[in-house]
Every structure is written in structure tokens, then in C-alpha cells.
Amino acid sequence: MTYSVAVSGASGYAGGEILRLLADHPDIEIRTVTAHSNAGQPLAEHQPHLRSLAHLTLQDTTPEVLAGHDIVFLALPHGQSGQYTDALEAVPLVIDAGADHRLTSRASWDAFYGGAFHEAWAYGVPELLVQGSKQRERLRGASRIAAPGCNASTVSLSLAPGVAAGVVDPSDIVSVLAVGPSGAGKSLKTNLLASEILGSANPYAVGGSHRHIPEIRQALAAASGVSDDSAIRISFTPVLVPMSRGILATSSAPIAPGATDAQIRDAWESAYADETFVQLLPAGRFPRTADVLGANTALMGLAVDRAANRVTVVTAVDNLVKGTAGAAVQSMNIALGLPEGRALSVNGVAP
Question: Exposed e or buried b for every residue in 70-107, given b needs 16+ CB within 10 A?
Fold first, then answer.
């Protein structure tokens, strides 16, 4: 069966990456691409690398244009997709790459986003541990999927095995991330100009204000088997660095009393031993962002620091692939009953 697809926000980075992956998907026909201010223009003016889709023209993003497809991807700024989802009830599968349907807590939404609150959808991180199973079980047959925040899924995947196994204490998590500016989208902003970021590293959303924090707390609470995230405390600091793509997340948490080095490593090995797209490197090895460029892969290295009594996990992802579009396509495959890795690669691009 071939599924017809519409992609909104198709002129942006996330929308473009969704299109790049879907262009090679044998079960997908990309029928419609939409935008706001760029509507009426050829897709190739905004995504010139997508040569196989150069025949498409960006249409207005309206419920009427998006309706009538088997699958709709919403790659819109946070707070904008919710206005369309209610009008797309007849679409069999809708996947939101924004934040509108990620959070279960209205209070958390109000505190970090504001505006209209929308119900949470199935969370699009298949490998995430949730109450003794994997999130992919909740994605099978799903009709509504919320793709993750790139920073949030990276940190959650980094620490969920330790939290689920009870070998780390989630009340004192510290995560510092080097991130590429493509995660902020294509909108022109002074702090994202090349002259501002080249040769520099710039922290932002310091002091607990980053919008991905409640998403991380929600995911790690679910990994521990509870719905209350009050026991999850995290200091989260992202730093913009001069690379177009990528996240290198260094996350640490205290070792739980009595946990041995073998038990700690086994928690991560057991969690990801059978996973294709989340891989734990051998002891003493740590990833680079260059290793995952263009791939739907999260590579992680684990260290047990007995002197500080902490576990440290370093995880690298391509924020536009495994962090966003790849997670969305992987979740789509699961929901439709297709091979999970169809149109996705574990291989990065080097040099």
C-alpha cells in the first residue's frame, strides 16, 4: 500500500528533513507541501537539496489543504500545530513535530509555553523505557503521535536505563549540551547569525528555563514507573556551538546506594542491546557528533565516576534526524506496521 502524505512547514529545517527521509520511503507518496509566508513558491527555492521533489509547490497551510491525506506531518513552531489538529480528525495518522501534544501536564505547559493546552499524544521515542516496556508498544497502531524535542529525547534516552533500573538517583541530574543552531529553526534571529556564533560558544536558557525540561522530567518519571515527576530534578544547560547540526549531551546523576559498576553498565546494555538506532559504545569509548551526521542513530558512552559518586553518559545525535524527523518517521513506520527502520539509516556521513 502507498500512503499519501502532506507535510506542513515544508520550507523549514524540520519539514525539510522529514521530506528528505520520506523521499526515499517506498511506501510513501509526498503529495502536498505547505508553508505560511513562503506559500506559492517552489519547494526547490527553500529546499534546493531535495532534487526529487523539485516539482512541488508550497501551498497555504490550511486544514482544507492538509485534509484528504493518509498521513499529515506538522512541522510548525511551538504553539501553532494545535490549531490544525482538531480540524484533521478524519486524517488517519497525524504526526506533530512541535511541542503542542508532548506534555501531559497543563501546569507544565502553562509554565514553560503558555497559550492553549492540547492533550498529549503517543510520544515518538520508540526506544524509551516506560513502566517496564518500551514506548514503541504505545506507538503500534497509533493515530496521533508527538515527535520529541531533540534535546529532551537525547537526555531522556541517556538516563532512562539508569532511572528504570534504580542504579542512579534522579533527584540530582545535571545535563550540559553542545547544540547546533538548526534546532532553533530557520527564522532570522541575531544570536543565530554566523557572525555571532562562529568561533564562539553561547549558553542560552540558563537556570531552568529551557522548554524541554518538563518533557525530560515527564519521560524519566515514566521510565521509573510513576506519573508524578516531582522526584526528577534536573539542571539543564544548552550551549550553542558553531556546527549546523548535532547535539552532544553530557548528563550525570548520583550513583544509587549499593549499585555496583557491573549493575550500572548492565542497565544500559540491557536496555539497548536489541536496539538498532540507540547504541551503547564499548567501555572507555565516547561518541562525536560527526559520527551521527545524517543518521537516525544515538550513540552513547558511559562512565562510572566513583570519585564523584556519579554516572556520566555522553550521547551524540543529529538533532534534525534522530532528534526530530527520524524519530517521526520511525514512529510512523511502527504505527503503520511497517519495518521500523524503513527509509532510515544507522550510517552517518563523513568527513
Answer: bbbbbbbebbbbbebbeebeebebbbbbbbbbbbbbee
